[in-house]
């Protein structure tokens, strides 16, 4: 397949999304056996932002997407995101508290490409996040993962290099909510603490719909093949 950069991706034999169910199950099982109790306190709030047209990965769906193809497609999106972030951060209003919201699975971490725990960072996303956090931007993570694996998820993000200002996981009642609505509510909660969400980064429409971000950047999920 050909990605946004015009390169042809090669499919890896053992790192495609067909391993998703087993890989995710293995990670959850490991996390549950090693989890310690932890409390994550989300940081504060902000004025509502006006969303603009999302930057989206352009990549053909495939039955088995190779790791190299996925990384090139992620890189294409983040190569568009980083110049915007640099410009927006440089023109922060006096007293403005800027934030970026990120999804976890196959956005911040390489969830569907292996069985390991801790999961490695998705490098193109981490590089943009590192630039932001080095310039005083808060990083918030909003995930559909259940609260029972909150502590190992928080530890994994820190181990991968992210400096989290807050991790939002689903409580019991949230499991019965529409995922897009749940994630939108969490972004609204972040804004209510005084933050301006300058970017929302995810790989699914449910990560990005519902507003409460100035810009959205969609990584590939190949028609739902990636979680």
UniProtKB/TrEMBL annotation:
Residues 1-20 are annotated as: Disordered. Keywords: Signal. SUPFAM superfamilies: HAD-like. It comes from the Bacteria. This is HAD family acid phosphatase. It comes from Streptomyces lienomycini.
């Amino acid at each position: 397949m050909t990605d946004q950069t015009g390169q042809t991706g090669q499919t890896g034999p053992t790192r495609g999304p067909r391993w998703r169910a087993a890989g995710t199950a293995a990670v959850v099982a490991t996390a549950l056996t090693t989890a310690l109790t932890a409390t994550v306190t989300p940081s504060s709030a902000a004025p509502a932002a006006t969303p603009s047209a999302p930057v989206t990965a352009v990549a053909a769906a495939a039955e088995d997407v190779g790791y190299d193809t996925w990384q090139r497609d992620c890189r294409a999106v983040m190569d568009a995101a980083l110049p915007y972030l640099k410009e927006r951060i440089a023109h922060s209003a006096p007293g403005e508290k800027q934030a970026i919201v990120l999804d976890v699975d196959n956005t911040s971490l390489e969830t569907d490409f292996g069985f390991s725990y801790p999961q490695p960072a998705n490098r193109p996303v981490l590089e943009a996040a590192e630039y932001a956090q080095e310039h005083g931007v808060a990083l918030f993570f909003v995930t559909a993962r259940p609260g029972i694996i909150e502590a190992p998820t928080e530890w994994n993000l820190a181990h991968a290099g992210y400096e989290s200002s807050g991790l939002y996981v689903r409580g019991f009642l949230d499991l019965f909510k529409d995922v897009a609505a749940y994630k939108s509510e969490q972004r609204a909660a972040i804004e209510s603490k005084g933050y301006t969400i300058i970017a929302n980064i995810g790989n699914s429409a449910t990560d990005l719909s519902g507003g409460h971000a100035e810009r959205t950047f969609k990584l590939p999920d190949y028609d739902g093949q990636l979680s």
